[in-house]
Amino acid sequence: MKRNAYNTTLLALVAFCCLCSACTGDPSSATNSEKETTEASITIEDEDDIITENSSDESDNNALPSVEDPTNSEMDPQVDVTPSDADPLQNPMTDPMQLGSGNIANGGFATGDEKYVYFVAHTSSERTSIYREDKATGEKTQIYQTVPKENPVIDCLNVVDNTLIFRENQSESRTYAIYSLDLSTMEPSMIDDADIANVTVSGKSIFYSKDGKLVSCDFNGENAKTLVEFDHSAMTAKVAFTIANDKIYYADQENFANGGMYFGKIYSMDLDGSNKTEIKADVDACNDDIFYTDGKALFFFGNTESDGSGYYTCNVDGSGLDMAAKAAPTARNTSGKLTVTCDSHEVYVDKDGTGSQLLFNEEMASANIVLVGDDIYFLGKEDGKTVTKRISISGANETVLG
């Protein structure tokens, strides 16, 4: 009886241990029933063009797309409010995304926020797309695509409050439209359609040049207001302007030069168009070239009686006027202490004001450059076609985005 009791007890103990072992098995062997899903890209054309791509391997330069626009506390795409005096190579940009002060002045074909980078890709000769890249994973998703048209153009990317604002040329005219893309639903809405340029978001408003006027409106196109208007018999020209410190700085279109170029004095005004004040700088600024500010200085193509035409800089109060370059380069952009200049072939980087370093030397489709974090975006050439390219400010990781 004692032996049977012992055996019974032993069998019960073994059964109990087996039960415990089953309950405390290796959790790593468990199957996760909740699979992560990749967000589907959506275009306004159809779902057949949906493209989702994981591009964690940046060495694949031929991979199709791998992007203002928040750059201050009010989400102003032309103003950089997170400048770092440290070498950006030693201190990579972190949230919020640091953008070039001259991004919109350079075409604004890339931008970013705390989580994503957005860029324009040249899908084909008849279609252009916008891609969104996850900064953490490198995954790229097409979120918008134009309808087939001749020479499609998308630029002036601004992202704020889960909304992407951009400009697109129209199929049957030489006009442009402003679109608002809801980044939750990927539903686009047209805001305005005219001779539009320099689309810039600041706070809850959109500012842009329209038929020789500087206007503003809400994100849905309502409460449109003309802030300043120029009436010339020669030809209608776009208004050069930039925004910082709750001020709009703009170039008066006083003197016609040629081809839509005007030169005039620089003014400032409040965001509602009030308190127009001339900036006392002995220079005339051009309306059809680089014109931007980093909040402290103005950068523009201008003309003086003493030095002639060239790229100038001055403080926002007009003091400290200086010629930065006589004729070349044909484009420039800044981010903190970083300055990037380029022409149709060469890109130079000056990281701290001590001197320029040649970064890129190949044929380019245009001289415009956009700065997003530690990367330079520019329009290059591949097999005779325009492509968006990206390269680190260190000169590494040159990538064809599409």
**Major sheet details:** 7 strands, antiparallel
Measured as a percent range, the helix fraction is under 10%
Please state the structural category.
mainly beta
Total helices: the number is 1
% residues in beta strands? 35-45%
Number of separate strands = 32
| Intertermini distance | 85 Å
Q: Specify the overall morphology.
A: globular
> Could you tell me the mean pLDDT?
79
Integer-rounded radius of gyration: 27 Å
Q: State the low-pLDDT regions, or none.
A: 1-95
Which features characterize this protein?
1 helix, mainly beta, disordered N terminus, single chain
Describe what you observe in this structure.
- This protein is mainly beta and 402 residues long.
- Helix content is 5%, strand content 43%.
- It contains 1 helix and 32 strands.
- The protein has one helix at residues 2-23, and strands at residues 52-54, 110-112, 116-121, 129-134, 139-145, 154-160, 163-169, 176-182, 188-194, 196-202, 205-210, 213-218, 225-229, 241-244, 247-251, 255-256, 262-264, 266-270, 277-278, 284-286, 291-293, 297-304, 308-315, 322-325, 331-335, 338-342, 346-350, 357-361, 364-372, 375-382, 385-392, 399-400.
- It is globular, with a radius of gyration of 27 Å.
- Residues 1-95 have low confidence and may be disordered.
